[in-house]
Amino acid sequence: ETGVTQTPRHLVMGMTNKKSLKCEQHLGHNAMYWYKQSAKKPLELMFVYSLEERVENNSVPSRFSPECPNSSHLFLHLHTLQPEDSALYLCASSYSSPGGERGEKLFFGSGTQLSVL
Amino acid sequence: GENVEQHPSTLSVQEGDSAVIKCTYSDSASNYFPWYKQELGKRPQLIIDIRSNVGEKKDQRIAVTLNKTAKHFSLHITETQPEDSAVYFCAARQLTFGSGTQLTVLP
């Protein structure tokens, strides 16, 4: 256990559904991240939150909506997804914002395996 | 933006041999280069990292080298063991990851 917990572990949803992924970290970190991991592709950074403020968004479609109410919790709200959005969604946390000098080691959660039908 | 290329995509070695995985990056401003290991069905875990102010770092059987001028860095695993079999990812900071290398250590 790395101190980063994601729920649910598995999610199957239709294209018209609305669901949310949850991530919680107990490590005292000040940055949290959402990554998408598809088969045969690199890990793709979706969102970064540092000190609860979004600092980077790599042109992710608006059907993905992040929320970070505090430094320990991160959500990814999903709506009207497409089948190509099926993937493993990984949450991670670290001590510093991107480019910071203090300990940038990422601690990952176990991920949510999402299937969009 | 940053671009990270990783080679090879698959690598098979005999137990006890060495394995080398190479990555190149494009943004000369990148200053932190971690390597993650992901076993099948598990989360990625950091195995070693290096900052741009050093050229090499070692941790037991694992080492990373960095050439800032050429903008490439490499992971070296010596005396490989079957439990080293996994997918290895390089990254530039936490922002851009390589495509991964499937390492298989044959007993």
Distance between the termini of chain A: 31 Å
- Oligomeric composition of the shown chains: heterodimer
Could you say which structural class the secondary elements and strand pairing of chain B correspond to?
A: mainly beta
Give the class of chain A from helix and strand content and strand pairing.
mainly beta
Give the helix proportion of chain A (percent range).
under 10%
Whole-number mean pLDDT of chain B? 94
Shape of chain B: globular
**Uncertain runs of chain B with pLDDT below 50, 5 residues or more?**
none
Uncertain runs of chain A: none
Biggest sheet of chain A, in brief? 7 strands, mixed
Give the overall silhouette of chain A.
globular
How does the major sheet of chain B shape up? Answer: 6 strands, mixed
- What amount of the residues of chain A lies in strands? over 45%
Helix content of chain B: under 10%
- SSE series of chain B: EEEEEEEEEEE
Number of helical segments with 4 or more residues of chain A: 0
Main interface by residue count:
A-B, 21 and 22 residues
E-strand count of chain B: 11
Mean pLDDT of chain A: 88
In percent, how much strand structure appears in the residues of chain B? over 45%
Record the SSE blueprint.
The complex is a heterodimer of chains A (about 120) and B (about 110).
Chain A: E1 4-7, E2 10-13, E3 18-25, E4 31-37, E5 44-50, E6 53-57, E7 64-70, E8 73-79, E9 87-94, E10 107-108, E11 112-116
Parallel strand pairs in A: 2-11
Antiparallel strand pairs in A: 1-3, 3-8, 4-5, 4-9, 5-6, 7-8, 9-10, 9-11
Chain B: E1 4-7, E2 10-14, E3 19-25, E4 32-38, E5 45-51, E6 56-59, E7 62-67, E8 72-77, E9 86-92, E10 96-97, E11 101-106
Parallel strand pairs in B: 2-11
Antiparallel strand pairs in B: 1-3, 3-8, 4-5, 4-9, 6-7, 7-8, 9-10, 9-11
